[in-house]
Each structure stands twice: as structure tokens, then as C-alpha cells.
Amino acid sequence: MVHLSDIQIAQAKQLLHIKDIAKKLDVLEDDLEMYGKYKAKLPLSLIDDKKIEKNNLVLVTALTPTPAGEGKTTVSIGLTEGLNKIGKQATVVLREPSLGPVFGIKGGAAGGGYSQVVPMEDINLHFTGDFSAVEKANNLLSALIDNNIQSKANNLNIDPRTILWKRVIDMNDRSLREITIGLGGTANGIPRQDGFNITAASEVMAILCMASNLENLKERLGNIFIGFTFDNKPVFAKDLEAENAMAILLKDAIKPNLVQTLEENPAIIHGGPFANIAQGTNTIIATKIGLSLSNYVVTEAGFGADLGAEKFLNIKSQFANLNPKCVVLVATIRALRHHGGSKQEEYNTPNLERVQEGFKNLEKHIENIRKFNIEPVVAINSFVSDSEEEVNFVIAKCASLGVEAVVSEGWAKGGEGTKNLAKAVVNVVDNKATQYKPLYNWNQPVTEKIEKIAKEIYGAKNVEYSKQAQLNLRRIDRLGFNNFAICMAKTQKSFSDNEFLIGRPEGFTVTVREIEIAAGAQFIIPILGKMMRMPGLPTNPASENMTIDNNGVISGLS
Q1: Which of 41, 85, 88, 106 is catalytic?
Q2: Which of 14, 382, 445, 498 is the most exposed place for a label (fewest CB within 10 A)?
Q3: What is the Cα Rg of the chain in Å?
């Protein structure tokens, strides 16, 4: 039997014209800004708060993942196909892939098998230029900062040693983490230490995902905190009159993108922050447009539920007044083996004892979701190496906790393989088992909010603050940012800040190394452990397996 790759499956699909996908949402062709035949921008005027209240939001998250990921995007797309198969009008709303992971480890992030969004190559590559716009807006602010330092007139007296703003590029490039700029003489600027983050980690990306409209976007961009003057006064992007020019660069990027699934259902894709260093969810605007146009919206949050889902529920849902009706926890047997102690070379080898031990990780995530007063459904993302006894154990163990666990076969069968999962989700929604409430109030003290997450979500016993973090806390207080949300930056590989503590660690201490301020996004970022905002490429990057032929046909994306 010949197994087709993800890209071969995607390329074999005859796509519908995007105007026909829009019709399924009752969106007029005149409302579309088309990017060719298969992609279009949607206007913000489609948001309808009255419809949003009546429709159903389903969040897809996961247990603590293995390095390869557990297939949240594949399950999100498959669940959307399954919901449509059982007669529900459903749209999937996702983040845009970053080129860094695409060319690094993942090789693609548009779903997999027969649960994909298409055109797959476009979505994985430059798409409609949103990431490029974020990058340019970010780097315009960097250029304005350095130009102001260089200028004799209109100089804000910025102390270069205090500048917190970094440049960005949408690529994994460890050599750009720390650089020196302004060398080569007085005409080239003032020498200072600088660095690059990956574009997904830019505060501009976070702001794009939090903004409610263009005016709000502009206000948030103006509130970006840059650093201090020599007189120790705070400097913001609005002091450089940067917000209008930055918003101009983002005037198209603020509009969500409409594409389709392999089964010709609508898919909205917009924004792309990482969940271990930012909020890890698509834009509020995209989610609200989806909820204005569909009875069911399926969306996902990055990495494990301790990262993306925690931020979705405490930051995005609180700010945007969203009301998730169900959370789908994606689990794989191989991840349970991993958390039970299996080595990477043993991930595909059945081992019931490892799965039983690894279940403790999934059980903690189930407990965490219920802390938000939401009832979860567990989706067992199926792999050929799963044994029947391992799967049956997970189903039975979840049932003992009052949670339905369903095998999801979206990768192999598309919507036909996820109908049971769709029915389980609808059952939770229809029974009104969920009455969402956030874990903390934004107005609580900063340390109280941090410790609430660390102790209740991660299971930490203590939280320690480095001297740098203590200085940062005093700065936050002085600047009046105590009522911001908390956006933890932490390894995705463990509940703790130590990536090697797998399973369900207990009795550990998390250390807050430093705390960054994202004043425009309205959250502060405690950085735990050794987190960094510019990844490096692996020894054998995915890019090495990619080719393009004389007809422009791409191979190797997956």
C-alpha cells in the first residue's frame, strides 16, 4: 500500500474557488479581498456580537507534548470536518505557521494526512504576507529608536543601555540572538548591544492578536514600552510618533484570512504567536469573525494545556469576553509512553506500564481544565503503533474520572474518522456542562497571579524570584502595570521550568529569572528557566528534505 505524504495529499485536492467557501458562511463575494483563487481577506465588519453570544467555541489543546508535537492542528481540522459530517455548521480558526519551525523541525504546520487546510504550501510559506507586515512594523520601530538616538534634533534623550526592544526575523537563527549594531563610524549610528527575536515572539504579533480593531491596534502599538531616558523616565513608541506608521504597515494584516479544509469547509487562519513565549493563540478578531459566521468554531492553543490553553483562558477569553463551551485535550499513546519513561527510540513500542505511569500527566491537565469550570473531552490522536490494550486503558481511566475519551482518526480518514469525537464535543456543549470562569482576576497583585498559575496549573510548591526579577517587579509597580495579565514564558516539555521533569512532577520550585513588559499587549512576561525568544535550527533541519521542480511543484513540506 502506497502512503501519500501530507503535501501529496494536499496537492491532489481540487480546491474550490474561495468565493464558494465564503458562500457557506453567507459572506458576499464583494466583501472578500482575494489573494488569487484560493485565499481571501475578511473584513472586520463581519463581527456581530449578538451572533457570537449564541454560537459555540471549542478549544483544542493537549497534554505535555513530545518534541514532535501531538497533532493539535490535525485534530482541530479533523474535528471541524467531523462536526460538519454530523450536521453542525463548523469553522476551524487557526494560527499561521512560522517559517522558523517549518524549515527547522516541523516541516509544516497546516494539519496532516486527510485533516489539512489548503492551499498547504501557501499557508506554510508566505501566505498573505501577515508575518512580513509584523516583521516590518517591528523593525520600523527599531529603526526609529536608533534614528532618534543618532539625531541631534528631536532627541528624546533615550539611554541606549536601557533599550528593551529587539529586531525580529521569521527564521530560526541562533547567531542573531545577541549582536552589536552601529559599528563603522559616526554615520552608521551609535554602537550598542542589540539582538533578534523570531517574528512570532514580537510584541507586535501579540498586539495584532489582542487588538479589537484598527484604532485599538494603533493605541496598543503606541503603548509599546521601549526603555528609559537618561533621566530614568519611561519611553514608549508613541513618544517616537511610531504608532500610525506601524499601523499603516499592518492595515491588511489585521484582516483574517479565509481558506478551506480538504473537505471544503471554511478555515480562518490569522496571527501566529508561540505559546511558550507569547499567548499562543490566533487573533481575537479571527475568533470573533468565526463565531459571527458559524454555529461551532474550533480553535487551538499552542503546546500543552499548561501553556496555550492557560493563556487562552486567562488572557484572551477574559479580555475578549469569550465563553469556551468545551476543551478537547489531545493525547497520544506515544506521549503517554514518553511521560511514563520511554526513550525516544521506544515511542512507537507498545508498553502498557509506561502508558499507565504517563497517564498522570494527562490527569493533571484534566484537573487543570476543570479549574476553569470547563468540561474536557480527551481525543486520542491515533497512530498505527497504538496497541488496543493501551487505548482501552486510556478510555477506561478517563471514564473513571468522568471524562469521555474518543479515538480520533482524522489523519487517516478525515471527518469520517472524527464523527465520534464531534458527537462527544456536542454532548458536552448541549448538556451545558461548562460555565467558564478564569483562574485569576487581572487586578490581583502580580506575584499573586504568577503564583496562582505556578502552583495551581504547574503543580509547583514554591516560586522563587531572582534579583533581576525582583528589580523587574519594582519597575512594573513604578510604571503602573500591576493590572496586566500574566503571560508565562516556560519550557513546553514539562509542567515545571526544567524540561527533564516529565510526567507529573511534584514538590518542585519554579524560578522567575526575569520579567518582561508587553505594555501594548497588556501583559507581563515572567521568564522561567532558560527560555529564549530566538530558536536555533536542529542538526538536520527540515529544509534539507525540501525540493522544488522546474514547474514550481514543492516536495518535502509535511
Answers
A1: 106
A2: 14
A3: 23
276-287: pLDDT as tens digits: 878 899 999 999
CATH number at residue 519: 3.10.410.10
301 is annotated as an active-site residue = no
Region of 89 (left: φ > 0; alpha: ψ -120 to 50; beta: rest) is beta
Task: Name the active-site residue from 95, 354, 364, 452.
Answer: 95
Buried (b) or exposed (e) across 430-467, using 16+ Cβ within 10 A? eeeebebeebbebeeebbebbbbbbeebbbbeebebee
Query: Which of 249, 277, 309 lies at the terminal end of a domain, its last residue?
Result: 249
Question: Which one is catalytic: 74, 199, 287, 491?
Answer: 74
Query: Which position has the grid cell 507569547?
Result: 278
Question: Which one from 236, 319, 383, 442 is the annotated catalytic residue?
Answer: 383
Instruction: Report the C-alpha gap between 439 and 330 in whole angstroms.
Output: 21
For 150, the enclosing helix (H) or strand (E) is helix 130-150
Residue of 485, 487, 491 whose CA lies nearest to 505: 491
Active site residue: 275, 331, 335, 521, which one? 275
Of 39, 41, 72, 413, which residue is the catalytic one?
72
Residues 426 and 456 in one domain: no
* Same structural domain, 286 and 418: yes
pLDDT reading at 2 higher than 70:
no
Whether 373 maps to a domain, the answer reads yes
Q: Is 383 a catalytic residue?
A: yes
**Are 10 and 262 a contacting pair, CB within 8 Å?**
yes
- pLDDT category of residue 558 using cuts at 50, 70 and 90: confident
Q: In sequence order, what DSSP letters do the residues of 422-468 get, joined into one string?
A: HHHHHHHHHTT------SS-TTS-HHHHHHHIIIIII--SEEEE-HH
Q: Same structural domain for residues 71 and 147? A: no
50: three-class secondary structure by DSSP? helix
450 and 381 co-located in one domain: no
How far, in Å, CA of 94 to CA of 120, rounded? 13
192 among known catalytic residues: no
Query: Do 394 and 407 contact (CB within 8 A), yes or no?
Result: no
Residues 293 and 426 occupy one common structural domain: yes
CATH of residue 243's domain is: 3.30.1510.10
Residue 105 sits in a domain whose CATH number is: 3.40.50.300
Annotated active-site residue 165? The verdict is no
303 is catalytic: yes
Say which residues have a Cβ less than 8 Å from residue 314's Cβ, sequence separation at least 6. Answer: 438, 439, 440, 453, 485, 486
74 catalytic per annotation:
yes
Set of cell numbers at residue 537 = 535550527
Q: Are residues 230 and 257 in the same domain?
A: no
Range scoring the smallest mean pLDDT among 83-97, 98-112, 388-402: 98-112
pLDDT tens, residue by residue, 38-47: 999 999 999 9
User: If residue 355 lies in a helix (H) or strand (E), which one and from where to where?
Assistant: helix 352-370
